[in-house]
Amino acid sequence: EGEASVEYRAWNPFRSKLAAAILGGIDRIHIRPGARVLYLGAASGTTVSHVSDIVGQEGVVYAVEFSHRSGRDLLNVAKKRTNVVPVIEDARHPHKYRMLIGMVDVIFADVAQPDQTRIVALNAHHFLRAGGHFLISIKANCIDSTAPAEAVFAGEVRKMTAERMKPQEQLTLEPYERDHAVVVGVYR
C-alpha cells in the first residue's frame, strides 16, 4: 500500500534446520542485525536468504557451498541480496577462500559430513572472532549410523570442547527433523 511495501515470507522448519531450531525453542541464535555470518553448507540459499534478512544491509552472510549445482541457485540468491557473498568451495579447505572472508561473529554449519565438527573448527580457527558464536546442525546418521543419536551428539560435543569451542545449548529438532540436533556455543 502506498510507497511502503512489506514482504512476508514463509520460513519452513521442515526444510530449514535454523527455522526448526528457532521454533524448537533455542534460546539465542546470535544472528542479529549487523552481524557477520559464515554459513557453511549453504545449499541453494533458501535459509541463507532468511539469514540475509536478519543481518540486514549492515551485516554480511558468507555462504559456502561445495556443490556447483546448488551453487548456481545460491548465485541467483546473491544477485538479489547484496549482503550475501557466495563461495563455491569445499568447507574442508578454508585456506582456499580465506581472501574472500574477514572475521565473523557467527558460524552456522549445516554440512552433514562425518567430520563436520572438524570442518567447523577449522573455519572457526580461520574466521571466527574470539567470543564469537557457532551453531552446528548435527545429523546423527551422517556421523555414525550404528550408534544411538544421543551418543553421537555427545561425542560431537566432546570434539567441540577439544577445539576451544564451548557448547552452551543443545536442542533436538524433533518433530521437524529426525535424529538431528543443533548445538550452540561460544568460541574460545
Automatic annotation (TrEMBL):
GO biological process, one term: box C/D sno(s)RNA 3'-end processing
SUPFAM superfamilies: S-adenosyl-L-methionine-dependent methyltransferases
Reactions this protein catalyses: L-glutaminyl-[histone H2A] + S-adenosyl-L-methionine = N(5)-methyl-L-glutaminyl-[histone H2A] + S-adenosyl-L-homocysteine + H(+)
Keywords in alphabetical order: Methyltransferase, Nucleus, Ribonucleoprotein, RNA-binding, rRNA processing, S-adenosyl-L-methionine, Transferase
Iron as UniProt keyword: no
Family annotation (InterPro entries): Fibrillarin (IPR000692), Fibrillarin_CS (IPR020813), SAM-dependent_MTases_sf (IPR029063)
A Pfam family the protein falls into: Fibrillarin
MF-aspect GO terms: histone H2AQ104 methyltransferase activity; RNA binding; rRNA methyltransferase activity
One annotated Gene Ontology cellular component of this protein: box C/D methylation guide snoRNP complex
Subcellular location: Nucleus, Nucleolus
Family, per entry: Belongs to the methyltransferase superfamily. Fibrillarin family.
PANTHER family on file: FIBRILLARIN (PTHR10335:SF17), RRNA 2-O-METHYLTRANSFERASE FIBRILLARIN (PTHR10335)
Protein name in UniProt: rRNA 2'-O-methyltransferase fibrillarin
Organism: Melospiza melodia (Song sparrow)
